[in-house]
TrEMBL record:
Biological processes per GO annotation: phosphatidylinositol dephosphorylation; signal transduction
Protein name, entry field: phosphoinositide 5-phosphatase
Keywords, ordered alphabetically: Coiled coil, Cytoplasmic vesicle, Endosome, Hydrolase, Lipid metabolism, Membrane
Stretches assigned to coiled coil: 292-319
Main location class: membrane
Family: Belongs to the inositol 1,4,5-trisphosphate 5-phosphatase type II family.
Organism: Sander lucioperca
InterPro entries referenced in this protein's UniProt entry, alphabetically: Endo/exonu/phosph_ase_sf, Ig-like_fold, INPP5B_PH_dom, IP5, IPPc, OCRL-1_2_ASH, OCRL1/INPP5B_INPP5c, Rho_GTPase_activation_prot
């Protein structure tokens, strides 16, 4: 890996264009082309290199001229990688080379092997070949046997991971990070540095764009341990949550399969002011995942924090090189390192009692009141994770620029918000501490032991497994026993997860590979409201696997089910490679919901939707002005939440949303349950689930074109279908009432326009940033006081 400019030399540049050609000269009968590419880690690079190797390795039409591609450097440079897709901008470093015939053959073979190793760092070329998508059952069988015999070719070796977490409260770097990042005597092998609240501006929140990313990255790079050279492997950010991953230069070649993902858990489960970013990678023979998260705030919101954790674990998924393989979840790794502002507080003690225990340094007693400790003990979150002993004072909340506890009007109770946990074997923590020298928050570094591959033992084990498989193949037909073949899902509701387990037992004489396959003339193996997890897999002889059949109705599938055009009914085809097919029946009943129903149809309903039959929808009574469900939510908020702090910005609880949905759909109870935040989020989800938005798709382009003209905007709204126009004006009037109380609820025109414009004025296709700004400008005209 090229770490600094000193590691790279430029000898010649030849542009590759349509006119470029290699012509055999009179004196040179062989040319050796050495391509030096700047590529990022990850699956994109591996796919690119495999294609280059396939296209360029081997003899050319000239007979004596051959090509080999050998990647030398892997740098995280997006610009350089994009250039590779344009031949006119790509360059080759060419050296003339006149080998003997036998040396040419040796170079061809060795270069191919180097390419495979560089892209995956697997010590065996055969193992990499078998990992390609076209190898199915055999590949999985070998992997299974290698896993069972792992102790024969692996041994633990010490590597240190420095893990740091720092909530910077939207500040720019004002001091050196050296006391934090270089606090260890010896330089760590890897750094994983997490930040939260990197930028608190509205621009960062709504457009995920901030100059502070570069400022803090620079501050980190300047403060790494001076006794080692480090390479930046990956940086990933979601709004103000950022994770930076560095590795020592000498370890870089053993890093592979690097991927990064993000998930937002803010309002509507999408906004990125809360959530997580993560990086996964393979180091030697260990798969490692590092997660940096920022969970819900406020002392009483521990259930919301638990919910955030569970959503991160279920929704954060890493794609695999083989696109047919299911994505990897966080828990599918050997080692998981979890850092961040988890926001769990100290409960049942007031400020004075907490400060008294801190003054006595009685952290053990104080820790017994810690919400995270209690939630872990109850197995509500972080099951299987470990946290080191806390022997430092709480890291939240101080006055900025000092070591004084919060002296603001709110006078927050001190708490250990910033935490580090881990899960996996052979991990030893060397220290766990806060750094009072940094005035905004703190960090906690951790060191761990991971496994490292012994190449010679790996090769021997691998070859023995292959020999045994060769003897066994084609001798027997695989077969499985199914726990049952009919599944019934009763009373399926909108956005409510339903799951049942299908167990497969391999009762055959050989291992088998299964996969759910498409039926004729169908694009996928199942209906969009159904998933099988995993959809494909491998079962060793005598082994079993549990498959979760999951039914989940969302905004894309609800409209057809609400209208009766679609039913909860499907047939799954389970295929065994070299074996037979099994048919599995999935049936159920869906309870209609106002979520996913059109404005027009809801205006026809004077009773709760679950009390109405399909025939009732055809009645000719005068329709309601607006859907009664919309009125119930807005009226509730108007009466209870005009002064609610952070309304429409803080998420509610999923359990409360379910109660609100049931109340709207059944009319029971008479008034809406749940907190104001849950009702507000339920309203946003209602608007998001409309099959046709409040401003119909046919008006979308026209709205963009006249967005800067207030009178033209009002004219467009006047042309909407009557029920859509009523809803638009009703919502705008309510939001103007909210803005009259902005001193209490902390809302402004920009925030409301950003949240509601994307729901009321949705694009029929993917919306770009310019369109998003235009929809906000359009809607802002209706939020101005005095608008009709």
């Amino acid at each position: 890996m090229a770490i600094t400019a000193d590691d790279v030399s430029l000898e010649d540049i030849i542009p590759i264009s349509l006119d470029f050609a290699v012509v055999e000269g009179e004196l040179l009968s062989y040319f050796y082309f050495q391509t030096e590419l700047r590529l990022p880690f990850g699956s994109h690079t591996r796919l690119f290199l495999s294609e280059v190797n396939r296209a360029w390795s081997g003899r050319s039409a000239l007979g004596d001229v051959w090509f080999a591609c050998k990647p030398r450097y892997f740098l995280t440079s997006k610009v350089a990688f994009k250039r590779l897709s344009s031949p006119a901008q790509c360059s080759l470093h060419i050296k003339p080379y006149i080998p003997e015939n036998i040396r040419a053959k040796q170079h061809r073979q060795s270069d191919r092997h180097d390419l495979v190793r560089s892209s995956s760092h697997t010590p065996s070329n055969k193992a990499q070949i078998l990992a390609m998508p076209q190898f199915g059952l055999r590949d999985n069988l070998i992997r299974c046997e290698l896993l069972k015999n792992e102790d024969l070719y692996t041994y633990p070796e010490d590597f240190s991971f420095f893990l740091g977490t720092y909530n910077v409260n939207g500040q720019t770097p004002k001091e050196s990070l050296h006391p934090w990042l270089s606090c260890t005597l010896n330089p760590p092998d890897m750094y994983c540095i997490g930040f939260q609240e990197l930028d608190l501006s509205k621009e960062a929140f709504f457009f995920n764009d901030t100059p502070k990313e570069l400022e803090w990255t620079k501050a980190v790079s300047e403060a790494l341990h001076p006794d080692a050279k480090y390479a930046l492997v990956k940086l990933v950010r979601l709004v103000g949550i950022m994770l930076i991953f560095y590795v020592k230069k000498e370890h870089a070649e053993f890093i592979s399969d690097v991927e990064a993902e993000t998930v937002g858990t803010g309002i509507m489960g999408r906004m990125g002011n809360k959530g997580a970013v993560a990086v996964r990678f393979r180091f030697h023979n260990s798969d490692i995942c590092v997660v940096n998260s920022h969970l819900a705030a406020h002392i009483e919101e521990y259930e919301r924090r638990n919910q955030d954790y569970k959503e991160i674990c279920s929704r954060l998924q890493f794609r695999q090189l083989d696109p047919s393989q299911p994505p990897l979840t966080i828990m599918k790794h050997d080692v998981i390192l979890w850092i961040g502002d988890l926001n769990y507080r100290i409960s049942e003690l007031d400020v004075s009692n907490v400060k008294e225990l801190i003054g006595k340094k009685d952290f053990e007693t104080l820790y017994s009141y810690d919400q995270l400790k209690r939630q872990i003990n109850e197995e509500a979150v972080f099951v299987g994770f470990v946290e080191g002993d806390i022997a430092f004072q709480p890291t939240y909340k101080y006055d900025t620029g000092s070591d004084k506890w919060d002296t603001s009007e709110k006078c927050r109770v001190p708490a250990w918000c910033d935490r580090i946990l881990w899960r996996g074997k052979n991990i030893v923590q060397q220290h766990y501490q806060s750094h009072m020298a940094l005035k905004t928050s703190d960090h906690k570094p951790v060191s761990s032991l991971i496994k490292r591959v012994n190449p010679e033992a790996y090769k021997k084990t691998f070859e023995e497994i292959v020999r045994n498989i060769d003897k066994m193949e084609n001798e027997c037909i695989p077969s499985v026993t199914l726990s049952k073949r009919e599944f019934h899902f009763k009373d399926v509701k909108y956005m409510q997860h339903h799951a049942q387990t299908l167990s497969l037992f391999n009762d055959g004489q050989v291992p088998c590979q299964f996969e759910f396959i498409q039926k004729p003339n169908e694009p996928t193996y199942c209906k969009p409201w159904l998933t099988a997890n995993p959809p494909k897999g491998f079962i060793a002889q005598g082994g079993s696997v549990d498959i979760e059949l999951e039914v989940f109705v969302n905004r894309s599938t609800a409209p057809e089910l609400n209208s009766g055009k679609e039913q909860i009914e499907d047939i799954l085809v389970l295929h065994l490679e070299r074996g037979k097919d099994y048919f599995i029946s999935v049936i159920g009943n869906y309870l209609p919901s106002c979520y996913g129903s059109s404005i027009h149809s809801l205006c026809q309903l004077r009773e709760p939707i679950q009390d109405m039959s399909q025939e009732t929808l055809l009645n000719t009574e005068k329709p309601l002005d607006i859907p009664k469900e919309l009125w119930m939510m807005v009226d509730h908020l108007f009466r209870n939440a005009l002064k609610q702090e952070d309304i429409f910005q803080q998420p509610g609880l999923r359990s409360e949303f379910a109660e609100i949905r049931d109340c709207l759909d059944t009319g029971i109870p008479d008034s809406l349950p749940g907190s104001n935040h849950s009702v507000a989020e339920a309203l946003l989800l209602f608007l998001d689930a409309l099959p046709e938005p409040v401003v119909p798709y046919s008006f979308y382009q026209q709205c963009l074109e006249i967005c800067s003209n207030a009178s033209q905007c009002e004219k467009v709204i006047s042309m909407l279908p009557q029920c859509h126009k009523n809803v638009f004006n009703y919502l705008a009037a309510f939001l103007r009432e909210l803005l009259k109380n902005s001193a209490s609820n902390r809302l402004d025109v920009n925030i409301l326009a950003t949240i509601f414009a994307s729901l009321l004025l949705r694009s029929p296709t993917k919306q770009d940033l310019a369109e998003k700004r235009k929809t906000q400008e359009f809607f802002q005209h209706f939020l101005a006081q005095g608008s009709s």
